[in-house]
Write a sequence for this structure.
């Protein structure tokens, strides 16, 4: 039974992380921390940025392509340079 409760706990953590996105949050620190968290690093960047509806899906997809990422790129694929670019993109919204 602990496996099921562990899975549910991780699922809840991921859902809360995605729902906590806000344009004014300290995105740079959040993404750096998430990239080292085993339970969060597999979240797709596009989903994280667009799930709350604060940023458009098409604009985000085009932006990700411009920095050589895709809609399927995950947080684990980010380096500091890409995180800075994402932070700049989000701050313009």
């Amino acid at each position: 039974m602990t496996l099921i409760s562990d899975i549910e706990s991780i699922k809840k953590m991921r859902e809360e992380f995605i729902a906590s996105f806000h344009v004014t949050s300290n995105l740079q620190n959040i993404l750096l921390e998430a990239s080292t968290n085993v339970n969060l690093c597999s979240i797709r960047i596009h989903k994280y940025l667009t799930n709350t509806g604060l940023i458009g899906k098409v604009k985000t997809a085009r932006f990700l392509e411009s920095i050589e990422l895709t809609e399927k790129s995950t947080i684990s694929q980010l380096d500091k340079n890409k995180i800075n670019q994402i932070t700049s993109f989000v701050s313009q919204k």
In short: The radius of gyration is 13 Å. The first helix runs from residue 2 to 19.
